[in-house]
Amino acid sequence: MLKVGVLGAGHLGKIHLRLLHESKKYELIGFYDADAINGKKVADEFGYRYFDNINKLIDEVEVVDIVTPTLSHFDCAKKAIERGKHIFIEKPITHTIEEANELLELEKKYGVKGQVGHVERYNPAFMAVKRQIKNPMFIETHRLAEFNPRGTDVPVVLDLMIHDIDAILSVVDSEVRQINASGVSVISKSPDIANARIEFANGCVANLTSSRISLKNMRKSRFFQKDAYISVDFLEKKVEVVKMKDAPESPGDFDMILQNAEGEKKQIYFENPDVGQNNAILDELETFADAITNGTEPIVSLEQGTKALKVALQIIASFDTRTSVV
Known about the structure:
By secondary structure, the chain is of the alpha/beta class. Helix content is 34%, strand content 29%.
């Protein structure tokens, strides 16, 4: 078992604490929270050991789980890495690209491993179909949430859209060529609604919409590729796969056949991949433990987290300039 400590005991931090306490791959040593009153309250309520000094906690563990506000990610991660500790860090990896790049350099220098908490990679619906998403040429995502003051310290792109950015980058094997985006502030001082169009060098286009002032919650993505349409509902954990193949010479009475302008006939058929049940947060934490133990690459590396942040910041930059970002 790996000795682990948690930095941050807010809403998500308490979830991490509970799961790490229950995990058979970690030994939870304790946690640190900058708010001493909250830290003592959590310790009294759940029985976890509270450290009032961040360095003391880091020194007693092998893995540091960073679940603090984004602005403090870099400082916390740097302290841990420079002490030779592996880090799990919530998304977005850092506040700036410069900070993220420095963490990448520190990770190599000190020979530790890092993973970023892009939890939708572990969504069972996405996992059920990811291998079938091959060379998509058009992607559309909608991530809508009812208003919650938590997270409004950053633009909706870093709060919500970055989940879809990371998922898209994990299935599109091409460099970003151009970005056009717009964002609107309604309640917060930073944009609450955003739309972005990402064009990749291979011709793929992704259209992303995110809102944190919606009347209903929605987390859906649709992937269009040659002879296939794949829909992923991250919220309901459902998938829909519609494929086409050459029509048989003698189709059955219930076969769905389409004919294009050139006279080619295609048969439409449906697949229903099995969608398992899991705890995505526990899975991301435990697969990180496996990566450390086995010396393998984490599923969402610091490098991948940095790429997602870079695209997110390019989208935000497009808000400011009202022009495309290349």
